[in-house]
Design goal:
heterodimer; A: alpha+beta; Uridine Diphospho-n-acetylenolpyruvylglucosamine Reductase, domain 2; Uridine Diphospho-n-acetylenolpyruvylglucosamine Reductase, domain 3; Enolase-like, domain 1; B: 161 residues; Ubiquitin-like (UB roll); DNA polymerase, domain 1; 5-stranded mixed sheet; 5 helices; 29% helix
Chain lengths: 263, 161
C-alpha cells in the first residue's frame, strides 16, 4: 500500500469535512477498498473511516412501513435485524461473501462501489430503494450509472438506504465460488403496483432491470411466467468464468429461482 | 501516525500506528502475536481470523486504526486460564482437525464465533460457516467433525467421506 493517514470521525458532519481534503477517500467496511489499496490501485492522501459514526448504523422500520438501513450497517447486522421486516433483503445480506466479510462490509460501501457483480445493487434497484446521502435523496433508478459508476458526487456519503417493503421478494445467486460474488444473480420484488426484477453480475453496464420479465411477472408471479423470455448476450460480461451467452442464459434461470424462492 | 488503544486478549495496549497498518501487521509485528497467520492477504483464506468486539473479522482486511477502543481476541487468548486447550482446540487435537496447522488459528476463531451464535450447529451449518476459511491439507472433514464434537454432539457416526 502507498502510505496515507487515516481519520475516524464520529459524526457525518465531521466526515464530510474530512472528505473535503485533497485526495481524501471514504472507507466503509474496507472489504473491497483494502484489497484495492494493497494492489496500489488507489492512492488516497487520507482515508476517512466511516466505521465510528453511530448515527449511520442500524435498521429501522418507519411509520409508513419502509425499512431504513444506515449506510454504515454491516451485512451481518442487516441479515439479523432486517429478517423480521424484509426477509428477502435479509437473506441477500446473509449470503454476501463469508461470515467474517459480513461482519465488516457495509451496505453504503457496497452501493457506493457499485461492483457489477455485487449483491446489494440488485436489492436496491429491485426494491426501488432510495439512496439517502448527506446532501440529497437519489432514487435507485437514477443512482446506478454503469460499472463502478454511481450518481454520487465527490465527497458525498451514503448515510442511509430506504427500502419500500414488498409483498414478497427473492434473490437467486449463481455464485462464483472463489470470489463469492455473483456470476449472475437476480432479485425480484413483488409490490402492489407491479414486480421489479434486477440483475447483477451479468451486464458490462452493471446492475440493470429486466423490464420484459417485470411485465410478465406483474401479471403472473410464477416461475413459468418468464419461461419463454430471454435477454440478449450482447453487452454481457464474458470472462474465464463464463461467456456472455452463458450469463444471459443464467439471467432467465436465476429469475425463475428467485421467484420460486420469494417470501 | 496516530495513537490507538485497544484491549487484546484482555490486556490494554496503546501504540502509535500508521494509517495503512493492517491488524495483521499490528498483531504480528507490533505485539509479536504471531498466531494470527497471513495466508492469502486478500481476505479469502481466513487464516488471519480474529474477533473484534466479539465478531469474526479478517485481520488482513481491517486497519489497526479502526480497532481503536475495541476488544480484540486472537488465538493466543483462546486457551483456558490454566493454559490448557479450550474445548474447541482440544477437539481439533482429538479429531485430527489439522495437518500442517497453518489454517488452524483461523479455523478455531471461526469455530468459536459459530458456536457462540449457534451452540448446536448441523454439519451443513458448520460447512457453510467455514466458507471463508481455506485448508489445503485436511479436506475439511476432520475440521467439521472437531467443531461438531466441540459443540457436544456425538460424532462417532460421522466418517470421512
Amino acid at each position: 500500500m502507498y502510505s496515507f493517514d487515516m481519520v475516524r470521525p464520529t459524526s457525518v458532519a465531521d466526515a464530510v469535512s474530512a472528505l473535503g481534503q485533497d485526495e481524501a477517500q471514504a472507507l466503509g467496511g474496507g472489504q473491497t477498498l483494502i484489497p484495492t489499496l494493497k494492489q496500489r490501485l488507489a492512492m488516497p492522501s487520507v482515508l476517512v473511516s466511516l466505521s465510528g459514526i453511530e448515527e449511520m448504523k442500524g435498521v429501522c422500520r418507519e411509520d409508513n412501513g419502509d425499512l431504513t438501513i444506515g449506510g454504515g450497517t454491516t451485512h451481518a447486522t442487516v441479515a439479523a435485524e432486517a429478517a423480521a421486516h424484509y426477509p428477502g433483503l435479509a437473506k441477500l445480506a446473509g449470503g454476501i461473501g463469508d461470515p467474517a466479510v459480513r461482519n465488516r462490509g457495509t451496505i453504503g460501501g457496497s452501493l457506493a462501489n457499485n461492483d457489477p457483480s455485487a449483491c446489494y445493487p440488485a436489492a436496491a434497484l429491485g426494491s426501488g430503494a432510495t439512496i439517502v446521502t448527506n446532501t440529497r435523496e437519489i432514487a435507485a433508478d437514477d443512482y446506478f450509472q454503469g460499472m463502478f459508476t454511481t450518481a454520487l458526487e465527490e465527497g458525498e456519503i451514503i448515510t442511509s438506504v430506504r427500502f419500500p417493503v414488498p409483498e414478497a421478494a427473492g434473490y437467486a445467486k449463481f455464485e462464483q465460488p472463489a470470489s463469492r460474488f455473483a456470476l449472475t444473480a437476480v432479485y425480484v420484488a413483488k409490490y402492489a403496483d407491479g414486480v421489479r426484477v434486477a440483475v447483477t453480475g451479468a451486464s458490462e453496464n452493471g446492475v440493470f432491470r429486466w423490464t420484459e420479465a417485470e411485465q410478465a411477472l406483474s401479471s403472473n408471479f410464477s416461475p413459468d411466467a418468464v419461461a419463454g423470455l430471454s435477454v440478449p448476450a450482447d453487452g454481457m460480461i464474458s470472462d474465464l468464468h463464463g461467456t456472455g451467452a452463458y450469463r444471459a442464459h443464467l439471467v432467465g434461470v436465476m429469475t425463475k429461482r428467485a421467484v420460486a424462492a420469494a417470501s | 501516525m496516530a495513537e490507538v488503544t485497544m484491549t487484546v486478549n484482555g490486556k490494554s495496549v496503546t501504540k502509535s500506528v500508521k494509517g495503512n497498518t493492517l491488524m495483521t501487521e499490528f498483531l504480528r509485528d507490533e505485539l509479536r502475536l504471531t498466531g494470527t497467520h497471513v495466508g492469502c492477504d486478500t481476505s479469502q483464506c481466513g487464516a488471519c481470523n480474529i474477533h473484534v468486539n466479539g465478531n469474526l473479522v479478517k485481520a488482513c482486511t481491517m486497519f489497526a486504526g479502526e480497532a481503536d477502543g475495541a476488544e480484540v481476541s486472537t488465538i493466543e487468548g483462546q486457551a483456558n486460564a490454566d493454559g490448557s486447550l479450550n474445548v474447541i482446540q482440544q477437539a481439533f487435537q482429538d479429531h485430527h482437525g489439522l495437518q500442517c496447522g497453518f489454517c488452524t488459528p483461523g479455523m478455531v476463531m471461526a469455530a468459536a464465533s459459530l458456536l457462540k451464535q449457534n451452540a448446536k450447529p448441523t454439519e451443513a451449518e458448520v460447512r457453510d460457516y467455514l466458507e471463508g476459511n481455506i485448508c489445503r491439507c485436511t479436506g475439511y472433514h476432520n475440521i467439521v467433525k472437531a467443531i461438531l464434537a466441540a459443540s457436544g454432539q456425538d460424532v462417532s457416526g460421522i466418517a470421512a467421506e
